[in-house]
Amino acid sequence: MKTANPGVFAGEWGGSGPVIDKFSPIDGSLIGRVRTASPADYERTVKAAAEAFIDWRDLPAPKRGEVIRRYGEALRGLKRELGRLVSLEAGKIPAEGEGEVQEMIDICDFATGLSRQLHGLTIASERPGHRMLEQWQPLGVVGIISAFNFPVAVWAWNSALAAVCGDTTLWKPSEKTPLTAIACIRLAEMVCHECDVNPAIFSLAVGAAEIGELLAADTRVPLVSATGSTRMGRRVAEVVAHRFGRSLLELGGNNAIIVTPSADQKLALRAVLFGAAGTAGQRCTTTRRIIVHKSVYKAFVASLVTAYRQLPVGNPLKPGTLVGPLIDETAVAAMQAALDEVKARGGRVLHGGEHLGGTYVTPAIVEAENSWPVVQYETFAPILYVMTYKTIDEAITLQNAVPQGLSSAIFTTDLRESEHFLSARGSDCGIANVNIGTSGAEIGGAFGGEKETGGGRESGSDAWKAYMRRQTVTINYSDDLPLAQGIRFGD
């Protein structure tokens, strides 16, 4: 099998680091060999990205938006093929693989419109003959560290916004999904050549943690956007903060759905099923816990177990499959270790948790206590912890009583309950949903969470401001020089 050589891409392809063998989680077959970037390769890449920034920042924002629009069009033409590669490399069912590419297309559309709306403010000045305003300037090279579970969408969220803001990007993808990264950057290279712009605005360095460390410590990279585990994000935050850089962190989740007595039970059941078992539980927004009112607990959980028994688990490329494999054997071992800990504490496995061979498992439903360490920790696998509550305040307290704060949901037809959930006393998460699940966010809203989730925001709303620097401007168009606060100095 031919070895791809994209350890570094900054207008030129190369790489002199170790070779990664990429095996598909679907059947364990070798689907590619990738040569990684060495520290010297990284140095060459970041220099090229910094040089490309000099010209890119001067291009009018709508012209930058045109490049992103063209990239979105290229994705439309290859949606099925790139979605298939996501499935082969990450183990997603085709609907989710293509859905991830659709997210890329959507953010390109959003960023194209944004390129004509990078607006500041006009501010009233207290001094006569003066005008104040606020404007936004490009930052420079933006580092992007992404995780295996969304191997292309998260890069697009960051790179599309960064590009229209006038930044160049340097991407370190997960070593578990290098092939999709290569495909995305190859496509970007093609579009850049068609648009007569430097392809180094979209740079790539495939490598292990060493490359991430270099990126985090590099003063030429004013912003590092990192998606992944809390452990990884904490390290990035510490290193970047030490040099007074910025970090945009989208880290772990421990997301809960509250099911109230008035909830539409069928609606809630569907939401829990997709939220907990979709992507084999490998989303940061995966539903990890359900908090069900005691009056409906027995019936709801019985229905959930029945639905889980009917979930088709297997090869994600086979029609009808809804749950594919975990990413690797390490993930399988982590799931089994978590279930063993639950059992040791007296928890009860109501369904699933079997290892079916290879990287396949059956999604598990487990009765557990919210306070147990294993429940507090995010196990990146399809384990759903179920528990009960008596009052809405108790339910919200349970929902919030974990270190993470990404996504949350409540199913209710009681207006007072839903408003309480959305109030300052309610969910402490960055995402709070009513009568929809914890997964499946649209790109129009800012995506991210609080506490150990990192506090960053990606994608829609005003998340673009993270990729720019704010500048306050005062213009004196008078023939006098009054000072603020009425201060007189030397006259």
Could you give a short description of this structure?
With 491 residues, the chain is α/β, with parallel strands linked by helices. The chain has helices at 39-56, 61-77, 79-90, 94-114, 153-164, 178-194, 209-217, 230-242, 265-277, 294-309, 329-344, 373-376, 392-400, 415-422, and strands at residues 3-4, 8-9, 13-14, 19-23, 30-35, 121-123, 130-138, 141-145, 168-172, 202-205, 223-227, 246-250, 255-259, 287-293, 348-351, 355-357, 360-361, 364-367, 383-389, 404-405, 407-411, 431-434, 446-447, 450-451, 458-459, 468-476. It has 2 domains: 5-251 and 454-473, Aldehyde Dehydrogenase, Chain A, domain 1, CATH 3.40.605; 255-434, Aldehyde Dehydrogenase, Chain A, domain 2 (3-Layer(aba) Sandwich).
Describe the structure.
The chain is an alpha/beta fold and 491 residues long. The chain has 2 domains: 267 residues, Aldehyde Dehydrogenase, Chain A, domain 1 (3-Layer(aba) Sandwich), CATH 3.40.605.10; 180 residues, Aldehyde Dehydrogenase, Chain A, domain 2 (3-Layer(aba) Sandwich). It is built from 14 helices and 26 strands. Strands 3-2-10-9-8-11-12 form a 7-stranded mixed β-sheet, sandwiched between helices. Strands 15-18-19-14-13-21-22 form a 7-stranded mixed β-sheet, sandwiched between helices. β18, α12 and β19 form a beta-alpha-beta unit. The N and C termini lie far apart (81 Å).
